[in-house]
Amino acid sequence: MGDQLSRPLVVENVSKSLGGKKIIKNMSFSVEAGKIYGFLGPNGSGKTTTIRMIVSLISMDEGDVKIGGHSIRTEREQALSKIGAIVENPDLYEYMSGRKNLMHFARMSKQKISPERIQEVINMVELDHAIDKKVKTYSLGMKQRLGIALSILHEPSILILDEPTNGLDPKGIRELRSYLKDLARNAGVAILVSSHLLSEIELMCDRAIVIKAGQVINELAVSEQEQGDQQEVAAVFEVTQPKKAEEILAQYGTVRKDEKNLVLEATTIEQVPSIVMALVKNEIGIYHVSYKKSLEDTYHSLTEKEVM
């Protein structure tokens, strides 16, 4: 039971073929309660297909997805009762008020939703000032927040959002980011956000799951709290003997050249002193060492590699 609460979403060896081509290949990952995960990958990597399988919009060929410990395959109704999702644009009735949208969805829910719960989610998404106005008068950001309110009415343990910042202006993006962080921290909801905006994922998320060609290729700690002493960085070395230094750095990970410097990808700050000692022991002079912590650098390094 404990693991079901701490890991509300578990994807186990899921595969999917379309048109005779295997587009999702033995994919496995899980998310923790109270944390926001970015779901990243190049176009065509399988992000949307994976999300559609998780929320049971399409079937999987192999493997399983468990939501709150319930299998999508064998306990579909119980599993779906634990999910909130916006896979396309929020499904709203624009001629009705925000409150009437919430009341309508509450009536359709198999789970009893009280008027108090409706008011609670209105307050959570900070729409109390406009909730009795027609949705057609809402900004795109307000519609997105109302969509999220609809998705969390039934108190899901996992919220899944596919490109939630699409079309939002900078103010709307910032408000959505702040709201999602509050939802994860205060309500303990796990959130999976698929996005192509790496800078936004870096600001919003605790961790990021990176996929390519239908496979998970890495899971990264994004927030400083998650990284801790094991903070992952790209270490940049300016040295006297680049060729010899490159051979030594290659023992610690992937090395690339950046103008006159050598960049060691995906190492940790904790490991850098021992790398410096190895260079000095081999009589290589060090002019300068610096760090790059950009998710963008790490993401491109990972996705440019060949997937086996």
Question: Can you describe this structure?
Answer:
The structure is a single chain. With about 300 residues, the protein is an alpha/beta fold. It has two domains: about 1-225, P-loop containing nucleotide triphosphate hydrolases (Rossmann fold), CATH 3.40.50; about 230-290, YebC, transcriptional regulation domain (Alpha-Beta Plaits), CATH 3.30.70.980. It contains twelve helices and 14 strands. The strands form three sheets. Strands 6-7-8-3-9-10 form a six-stranded mixed β-sheet, with helices on both faces. Strand 7 (about 160), helix 7 (about 170-185) and strand 8 (about 190-195) form a beta-alpha-beta unit. Helix 6 packs parallel to helix 7 (about 170-185). The mean pLDDT is about 85.
